[in-house]
From TrEMBL:
Protein's UniProt name: Mechanosensitive ion channel family protein
Top-level taxon in the UniProt lineage: Bacteria
Any one Gene Ontology cellular component term annotated for this protein: plasma membrane
Lineage: Bacteria, Bacillati, Bacillota, Bacilli, Bacillales
TM regions (residue ranges): 32-57, 78-98, 110-129
UniProt keyword annotation of Cell membrane present: yes
Compartments it resides in: Cell membrane
């Protein structure tokens, strides 16, 4: 019993001596200090490199008027954010690897494991990879951007978010539709080019068409001055159709992207007011009652009595 106690005491004493010797070893603290200093240096340098690269990327993608590589500002902003994110993640990943190396971790098994894991993810998550690749090309090719009005897979709305994996649009009634980028098969963008406002105006057959044309052309000149969304002179195309009780005339006006609905409403209101001021009648359904033979006989009986 005494021998066992003595052995335990000697073992504890040896452990204590080794611990004290390790803690008081100046070379050990120098090594730890150097490792911490290197890690701190890696972190600081990585932050500085990220800042410098971000500034360089922002400079490259800066929108300049008259540049030979002129691009729309919305595309510049989208690509700038994408490149900055990719660069930031890449530099931070490299910094993490350098920190692990300073901590004594062998990077070769880590890289091999990452490669095997990436291969497994590539086979097991093909839809995810397809979404990411499609999202990158959507942004790079500027197919559409945030704020554009688009139709995606027969769903129309305003783009709220474009990511590397999903695209989010909001319809005019408030519903939010989320599409994985790999499922986007067809896109119609209403915000890239100017749109055409088409307005049909109906007048009665009894009206003088030449006078109506003069009034409408005067209204169109006033509309071009007052409506900022009209970018070209509105065109009076003439008689478009002959209806049962009306003559329909067609007007067109080139507008800024996706503003033709508002221009349509304003043009109709302005034309209606000017035609009313000039006494031009807008056709409406009418019912004409023709007295028949029975009505005439009844009138004769009343006169005889």
């Amino acid at each position: 019993m005494n021998e066992e106690i003595a052995k335990q005491g000697s073992w504890l004493e040896s452990v204590y001596e080794k611990t004290v010797a390790y803690v008081t070893d100046p070379e050990m603290w120098v090594r730890i200090g150097l490792i911490l200093l290197k890690i701190l240096l890696i972190v600081v340098v990585s932050r500085i490199v990220v800042s410098i690269v971000n500034a360089a990327v922002n400079k490259v993608f800066q929108h300049r008027q008259g540049s030979k590589l002129q691009m729309e500002q919305r595309r510049v902003d989208t690509l700038r954010v994408l490149v900055n994110n990719v660069v930031r993640y890449g530099i931070y990943f490299l910094a993490i690897l350098l920190v692990l190396q300073q901590l004594g971790v062998d990077l070769r098994p880590v890289l091999v494991s990452a490669g095997v894991l990436g291969l497994a993810v590539g086979f097991g998550a093909q839809s995810l990879v397809r979404d990411v690749i499609t999202g990158f090309f959507i942004i790079f090719e500027d197919q559409f951007a945030v704020g554009d009005v688009v139709t995606i897979n027969n769903m129309t709305g305003t783009v709220q978010e474009i990511g590397l994996r999903i695209t989010r649009i909001r319809s005019w009634t408030g519903e939010v539709h989320i599409f994985p980028n790999g499922t986007i098969n067809q896109v119609t963008n209403f915000s890239l080019q100017n749109t055409l406002s088409v307005v049909d105006v109906s007048v009665a057959y009894e009206e003088d068409l030449n006078r109506v044309e003069e009034i409408i052309k005067g209204t169109l000149k006033k509309a071009q001055e007052e409506l900022e969304d009209i970018v070209a002179e509105p065109q009076f195309l003439g008689v478009h159709a002959l209806g049962p009780s009306e003559v329909t005339m067609r007007i067109t006006a080139e507008c800024k992207p996706n503003t033709h609905h508002g221009v349509n409403r304003k043009l109709r209101a302005m034309i209606r007011q000017d035609l009313s001021k000039q006494g031009i009648e807008i056709p409406y359904p009418r019912v004409v009652t023709m007295p028949g033979r029975g009505f005439e006989q009844g009138q004769q009986k009343q006169s005889q009595s």
